[in-house]
């Protein structure tokens, strides 16, 4: 009886049985909403590692790739407070892109009411349209953004601004609908299914 399924920020490995159950839910027409990062940030130590949830591979079959990166937006960063006690400073932090109205899809009812929002440590998306499958970009960073595939740390001092020639605009939210391909073939079904 479930019609909608939300998976919020998964970081631990989903088993093949769990992935298959999610895939079959989608194949039966269920609506899946996934908040998935390509990279996982350890907030305590400021370290970054690839997300090993296994959902990224499954989503690729549906036409959406969650890239293994963190997008830094130097044109529209959120301002954050850093430091302790009396030694705090507020400064722009590019790894928390602030998505503004011009870069939000106003034609889609999901994002139409939004004026701005922040996306902490967000990864870029690649949307792949296909015959019978529609993709819609919901939100993008500013054109002064860069996708970091390697970072030693997410501390403000470790974020170096790249040369302006390397800037681009990145999709950070999207929808895929229509004819979706299962992530599993008959020979890939988990044991016992």
Structure, explained:
Helix content is 10%, strand content 38%. With 193 residues, the protein is mainly beta. A three-stranded antiparallel beta sheet has the order 7-8-9, with no helix packed on it. It has a two-stranded parallel ribbon with strand order 1-2. β3 and β4 form a beta hairpin. The longest helix has 12 residues, at 16-27. The protein is globular and about 60 Å long. The mean pLDDT is 92.
Determine the mean pLDDT: 92
Helical stretch tally:
2
Number of strands: 13
* Unreliable stretches: none
> How far from one another are the termini?
20 Å
For the largest beta sheet, what order do the strands appear in spatially?
A: 7-8-9
What structural class results from the helix and strand content?
mainly beta
Work out the strand percent: 35-45%
The gyration radius over C-alpha positions equals 18 Å
Shape: globular
Q: Fraction of residues in helices?
A: under 10%
What is the N-to-C succession of helices and strands?
A: EHEEEHEEEEEEEEE
The main pleated sheet reads as: 3 strands, antiparallel
């Amino acid at each position: 009886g479930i019609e909608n399924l939300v998976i919020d920020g998964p970081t631990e490995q989903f088993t093949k049985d769990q992935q298959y159950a999610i895939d079959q839910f989608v194949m039966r027409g269920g609506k899946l909403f996934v908040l998935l990062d390509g990279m996982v940030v350890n907030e305590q130590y400021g370290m970054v590692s690839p997300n090993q949830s296994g959902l990224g591979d499954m989503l690729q079959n549906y036409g959406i790739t969650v890239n293994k990166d963190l997008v830094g937006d130097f044109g529209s960063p959120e301002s954050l407070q850093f430091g302790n006690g009396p030694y705090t400073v507020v400064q722009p932090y590019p790894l928390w892109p602030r998505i503004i109205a011009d870069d939000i899809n106003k034609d889609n009812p999901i994002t139409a009411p939004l004026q701005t929002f922040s996306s902490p440590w967000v990864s870029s998306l690649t949307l792949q349209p296909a015959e019978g499958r529609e993709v819609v970009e919901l939100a993008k960073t500013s054109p002064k953004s860069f996708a970091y595939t390697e970072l030693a740390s997410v501390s403000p001092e470790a974020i170096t601004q790249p040369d302006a020639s390397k800037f681009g605009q990145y999709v950070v939210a999207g929808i895929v609908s229509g004819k979706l391909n299962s992530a599993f073939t008959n020979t890939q079904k988990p044991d016992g299914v």
